[in-house]
Amino acid sequence: MTDNDREYIAGDGDASDSQRYQAVSRVRSRFDELVTDLECLEEHRPDLLEELRENDEIQRLLCES
């Protein structure tokens, strides 16, 4: 996410409802890109994908909910 996206999603500053909505929309569109990126790592750099899987902070954030 961009710094602005983080700010808008967090409700910080004086972002309008439209800016917040657009930030959420941009983040959702990046989910598909993330899947594509992970598939690329799986096929071409499984070592990097494994490194990502072993990252404790990422594990905590993804598995917390």
Features:
65 residues, mainly alpha, 0% strand
Furnish the topology, listing elements before pairings.
Layout: H1 3-10, H2 17-44, H3 46-53, H4 56-63
Encode the helix/strand succession as letters.
HHHH
What proportion of the residues form beta strands (DSSP E)? Answer: under 5%
Helical coverage, percent range? over 70%
How many whole angstroms does the radius of gyration measure? 15 Å
Q: What does it look like?
A:
The protein starts with a helix and ends with a helix. The protein is an all-alpha fold. The chain has helices at 3-10, 17-44, 46-53, 56-63. The protein has one domain (3-63). The protein has 4 helices and no strands. Helix 2 (17-44) packs across helix 3 (46-53). 80% of the residues lie in helices and 0% in strands. The model has no long low-confidence stretch (mean pLDDT 93).
Give a brief rundown of this model.
The protein is an all-alpha fold and 65 residues long. It is 80% helix and 0% strand. It has one domain.
